[in-house]
Amino acid sequence: MFSIGETVRADFRAVFERDPAARNGLEVVLAYPGFHAILMHRVTYRLWRWGVPVLPRVLSHVSRFLTGIEIHPGAQIGKRFFIDHGMGVVIGETTEIGDDVTLYQGVTLGGTGKERGKRHPTIGNNVLVGVGAKVLGAIEIGDNVKIGSGSVVLRSVPPNSTVVGVPGWVVATHPPDTDIHERVEHLPDPEGETIRALQERIIRLETKIATLEARLAEGTIEGSAESLARSRRG
Ligand SMILES: CC(C)(COP(=O)(O)OP(=O)(O)OC[C@H]1O[C@@H](n2cnc3c(N)ncnc32)[C@H](O)[C@@H]1OP(=O)(O)O)[C@@H](O)C(=O)NCCC(=O)NCCS
Questions:
Q1: How remote is the CA of residue 161 from the centroid of ligand 1, in Å?
Q2: Which range is most confident: 185-189, 215-219, 221-225, 227-231?
Q3: Which of 1, 80, 121, 207 counts the highest number of beta carbons within 10 A?
Q4: What is the pTM of this model?
Q5: What is the mean pLDDT of residues 118-134?
């Protein structure tokens, strides 16, 4: 296990690397809830591992009260972890997080409510989880994955990919150390498909009505409901 001092210094540097708004150290120490939350977690995690009862949960509760970020003391978090803004982030007990991971506000790394034991996600290295995204269940998120804001991810995601939507779909891959960004899938659009089907149906109906009106005007069909129905069947 690496020393707390070394780990906290790495977390501190990560803020500067990933937040262009971070300008000086004092500002980060005093006004970055994401930094406060991970600092506190580095301590509560140690206490949890030593088997200290109650205190780790109480300290993590205090941290949540101060920062709006809830990290269970049992969660394993790698180096250079950064939570930007932070409010509403929840990280469950059996979550495992690799190095260089960034989370934005409102992210949940949680359980589905159906599992026991290991029930929270395992997140690889260099993963970005966008604002409000939910990653649920004992699934694996590969290295270098980007999870779009607002996504709900319920299945494992292969490395080097971008996942977006509800439920989350892999829409692009981006092998590391290359400029390649390959679009693999477009998001399904059930509402758009329904609207397109309705439009086509309206066009077909309008054509039929125009034909019937023309035939009525020519007198080639009688204008009764019965004959109209007969004509439609034909
Ligand atoms: C997902 C994200 C990382 C972009 O990744 P990317 O690999 O560069 O993907 P692209 O921008 O090429 O988008 C790929 C497709 O996903 C769609 N997409 C991107 N982000 C999306 C999202 N959050 N929800 C739904 N669709 C999204 C794009 O429109 C595009 O769709 P198309 O193929 O139909 O055109 C980015 O959109 C994102 O959500 N970043 C999070 C940033 C954040 O949370 N900021 C908070 C600041 S406070």
A1: 11
A2: 215-219
A3: 121
A4: 0.83
A5: 97
